[in-house]
Amino acid sequence: MVKTLTQRLGILLALAVVMAATRMHHSVLHHFDALPDASWGIFFLAGFWLRGAGRWAFPLLMAEAVLIDYLVINSQGIDFWSHYCVSVAYWFLIPSYFSLWLGGSWLAKHQVGLRLQTLGMAIVALLVSWAACYLVSNGSFYWLSNSVPLPRSLAAWFANLGDWYLPFLQTTALYVGIGAVLHVLAVQIAHALHADQAKLPR
């Protein structure tokens, strides 16, 4: 489905708002605290809906994620680089999130409309890109962050992977599932409007 620049900007804005509302836990948006962070799902959906706009859309979403983290950490009175979750491994969020973007982009290129085949492709694309994101982000934090106590070992890393595997997968799948439902509704509405316009007298 070809999108105009205005449509792409609208989609980007909507995704940015959802990411801000769920990623920002200590702010004026405190009433969204109960919502899990949508960032991973957002990058996958952005890759799907904004395929071809990665040169500007991905950096903007990435900058938003970093800005939110910076604001949240500083609001706690903590220096950004002193926070538990921030280290040299923080830079690995770029390839982590980009793997999700690539998964969504691949799906957009190869999907065949609202068919069962597309659903299967979506599941595969999500699982593969999510696994890449998870391994890079979790692995870089475990092996490079000073927050992880020494000594480190493969066995301990695998145990850590197992601890967070399902929660991260469930959260990402939840938001991608919501996005998929919205996508199906939008396509159906667009088809219905197009059919109604085709029936109008010329």
Number of helices: 6
Extended strand count = 0
Oligomer: single chain
The chain-level mean pLDDT equals 88
Share of residues in strands: under 5%
Q: Main β-sheet: number of strands, strand sense, barrel status? A: none
The ordered H/E elements are HHHHHH
- Which structural class should the secondary elements be placed in? mainly alpha
The Rg value, from CA coordinates, equals 19 Å
Which regions have little confidence, pLDDT < 50, spanning 5+ residues?
26-32
What gross morphology would you assign?
A: globular
Distance between the termini: 25 Å
Bin the helical content.
over 70%
Walk me through what this model shows.
Helix content is 72%, strand content 0%. The protein is mostly helical and 202 residues long. It is globular and about 75 Å long. Mean pLDDT is 88; it is low at 26-32.
What is the topological layout?
Layout: H1 5-23, H2 39-49, H3 54-75, H4 93-110, H5 116-144, H6 154-199
Helix pairs in contact: 1-2, 1-3, 2-3, 2-4, 2-6, 4-5, 5-6
Transmembrane segments: 88-107, 119-144, 164-193
Keywords: Membrane, Transmembrane, Transmembrane helix
Protein name: Cobalamin ABC transporter
Write a concise keyword list for the protein shown above:
mainly alpha, 202 residues
